[in-house]
Design brief:
- The protein has 204 residues and is mainly alpha-helical.
- The protein has a domain at 67-204: Cytochrome c oxidase, subunit III, four-helix bundle (Four Helix Bundle (Hemerythrin (Met), subunit A)).
- The chain contains six helices and no strands.
């Protein structure tokens, strides 16, 4: 533990759980990830099934513009690299670099949300306009909620890392938080393939 953490009274220290990566919290987060992955799977299946059955134009405004979506995907995926790097730096005793990596990841995640909201504003329809709009806003909105939760998790991890609560032996919370963030990023790949790429396939 760092000098800052050692100087705190015992009751004021963060309860960081058992040493190692496979703590109870890790398995709990893995169970959460599996459950949420199933929910996203149901939403994506519903989208693809209804898209294959409809006779209406899909999407109603024409094929998606890929430029902004691809850029936003790269932004979110790159944030995972910084979260992964943060844990590695902390384990090597480079706490300042670990904090910096988490701050960059938070900025990238917030940028992703900002671009997503810009895309929402660019669409001429809403959640209740038609079937496609309902599916689009439900899927992307559900994912955005997960990104927001992930940003809160990263913010706490940044604070706790800065305070020196983690070291080479006790970084389970960083591993658990990273697992959730990586899940959010991987799920977006499936959403991007569904909402942005599949209309090009269905249009053939």
């Amino acid at each position: 533990m760092s000098e800052i953490a050692e100087a705190l009274p015992e009751r004021a220290r963060l309860p960081i759980g058992s040493p190692g990566e496979r703590s109870g919290g890790w398995w709990g987060c893995l169970t959460l990830v599996a459950t949420e992955a199933a929910l996203f799977g149901y939403l994506i299946f519903s989208y693809l099934y209804l898209a294959s059955q409809t006779t209406d134009r899909w999407p109603p405004e024409g094929l998606p513009k890929l430029g902004l979506g691809i850029g936003n995907t790269c932004i979110l995926l790159s944030s995972s690299v910084f979260v992964w790097a943060s844990e590695r730096f902390v384990r090597k005793g480079k706490r300042a670099m670990g904090v910096l990596m988490l701050v960059i990841a938070i900025v990238l995640g917030a940028t992703f949300i900002g671009i997503q909201m810009k895309e929402w504003a660019n669409h001429p329809y809403g959640l209740t306009t038609h079937l496609y709009g309902s599916l689009y806003f439900t899927i992307t909105g559900f994912h955005m909620m997960h990104v927001l939760v992930g940003l809160v998790v990263l913010a706490f991890l940044t604070l706790w890392t800065a305070l020196g609560y983690f070291d080479w032996a006790r970084s389970a919370a960083l591993t658990i938080g990273g697992l959730y963030w990586h899940f959010v990023d991987v799920v977006w790949l499936f959403i991007f393939a569904t909402l942005y790429l599949s209309p090009y396939v269905l249009a053939r």
